Amino acid sequence: MILKRKNNQKAFSLIETLVYIFITAMLLTTISSLIMANFNIRKKLKTSDLVYNDARFIMNQVSNKIHSVNVFDDVRPDSEQIIFYSEAGEDFVFVVEDNNLIYREIPNVGGGQALENVLNSERVEVNNFILTPVSDWQGNLNKGILINFNLSIGAPEDVYNYLNQDFETFISIR
């Protein structure tokens, strides 16, 4: 006696299985690339946020200090560049040391210890901090300060965690 096999068994053919695996692999590849792009954008935004927050803080601090100034001396090419003299007797300078921007009060003769504040965060480096005295259109000397500086974070090889940005502003002497 010969047994007949019924063809109504339910199973996937080899072609159907291969198509399923191919479609699943394409979906997983697309989803994983979207997730990686999201993480990379997040890294880039975090890096940018750190640099721009430091720039805002530096400009705010420098502006507030310079607005209290009566007179300043241009001592370039000295590293201190400009010495600021305020009404309150708090004379100060801005200096870049070891890629940090430092606000340093100059003690009066016989005065106490000088106050120093680092104005940038630990991860952000300050380079090319240049203060330039500016005269007004009438020829009056030292009516403002042009400030140029560069902030950078990360290593140039790291595409998503590196940013190098130049900043410039003008602050008038009141």
Defining traits:
single chain, 174 residues, alpha+beta, three-stranded antiparallel beta sheet, 1 helix, 8 strands
Q: What are the secondary-structure elements, in order, as H or E?
A: HEEEEEEEE
Approximately how much beta-strand content do the residues carry?
25-35%
Strand order, biggest sheet? Answer: 3-4-5
pLDDT < 50 runs, ≥5 residues:
none
Task: Assign a percent range to the helix content.
Answer: 25-40%
**Oligomer class:** single chain
Which structural class do the helices and strands define? Answer: alpha+beta
Query: Cα-atom Rg, whole angstroms?
Result: 31 Å
Tell me the domain tally. Answer: 1
Summed up, the helix count is 1
Choose one word for the global shape. Answer: rod-shaped
- Biggest β-sheet strands, sense, barrel: 3 strands, antiparallel
Overall mean pLDDT: 85
Distance between the termini: 113 Å
What is the tally of beta strands? 8
